Amino acid sequence: MIPARTAHAVLVILALLALALLVEILVPFWRPLFVAAVLAGALFPAMTRLSAALRGRRKLAGALLTVGVLVAVVAPLSALGAVLVPQVEAGVGWLRRALADNTLQRLVEYVPAALRPYAERLAQAVPSSLGRLQEMAASQGARAATVLGNVVSTTGSLLFQGILTFVALFFLLVDGPALVDWLNEAIPLKRGQVSELLREFRRVTVIVLVSTIATGGVQSLVATLGYVIAAVPNPLFFGVTTFAVALVPFLGATVMVIALAAVKLATGHAGAALFLFAWAVGVVGMIDNVVKPLFIRGGVPIHGAVIFFALFGGIAAFGPIGFLVGPLAVTFIVAVVRMYRRDFGS
């Protein structure tokens, strides 16, 4: 007769071996699976409504949503590749011309004396950096346009991971509820705890993904409208740049608009500069307070500074996908600790 303790130890060893094998299998594909899980969590409400409208045809609803996400990703990327690269060269060229003739040095005079040495270093570094960027855009423009316009078809690895992402997204949308039920049975936690963790995952996903990107998108569109009104050359280039800056927590879209207002002021366009500054503070900056509450309901029960460092730590550790991994990892740990204290704490 095998002792119970021995049988228990063998089962634990087998479980650990199986877990190690599973991790080894999934590690090469964790990025597409993670992105698919994030998208599926964010699209879960839409999937529920669409499935109900289609009388319970979850496969059809999942296929429509998956194709919709594919079109939403590929179509703008292709269009951007054809339009944006010439805008980069022309936009950087305008900045170089606008900042010539010591215009930056004139702006430095408005900087407080304590900060003036740093501003002078920045004023000396900006023109050379812009020159290198313009030369790169000019020499690699056609190649960059080709890469951006056909990135999915020319990069084998990206194509493979993209296919995995959309295949996983389809199955997660269609069989998501069944998968949650299976996890509730398979994972040795109290009934409902897995569902609670997944709900927290979905909530933070929507907050980080939708609120940050959607808010940055709305701000960049509004900023681009301001660039058009103020006659800023190449407004599409600066609109895309504003969107990229808007994703940086301690900067935001307002900083980019104010920077262009300073360039306008330095080049003698005081009216346009005043308009851009007012547009930055009164419209671009304030719209954040209008748009974000539409996406964030209940907020994240974590201090903003923790989320800030989680964002940058995730990006440093995992690259662009760390933008999601960082906050989700912190939220997951907080949720697990909270459940433990609630169920097992004294």
Order of helical and strand elements: HHHHHHHHHHHHH
**C-alpha Rg (nearest Å):** 25 Å
Compute the average pLDDT. 75
Binned strand content:
under 5%
- Dominant shape: elongated
Number of separate strands: 0
Which class do the helix and strand fractions yield? mainly alpha
What summary fits the major beta sheet? none
Summed up, the helix count is 13
Report how far apart the termini are: 39 Å
Helical content stands at: over 70%
Stretches where pLDDT is under 50 for at least 5 consecutive residues are: 136-155
Q: What are the defining features of this structure?
A:
346 residues, mainly alpha, 84% helix, elongated
How would you characterize this protein structure?
With 346 residues, this protein is mainly alpha-helical. The chain has a domain at 28-175. Helix content is 84%, strand content 0%. Helix 2 packs across helix 3 (58-98), helix 7 (156-186) packs antiparallel against helix 8 and helix 12 (304-318) crosses helix 13 (322-344). It is elongated and about 90 Å long. Residues 136-155 have low confidence and may be disordered.
Short summary of the structure?
The protein is mainly alpha-helical and 346 residues long. The protein has 13 helices and no strands.
Please specify the SSE layout and strand pairing.
Elements: H1 4-26, H2 30-53, H3 58-98, H4 103-108, H5 116-149, H6 151-154, H7 156-186, H8 193-229, H9 235-246, H10 253-266, H11 270-295, H12 304-318, H13 322-344
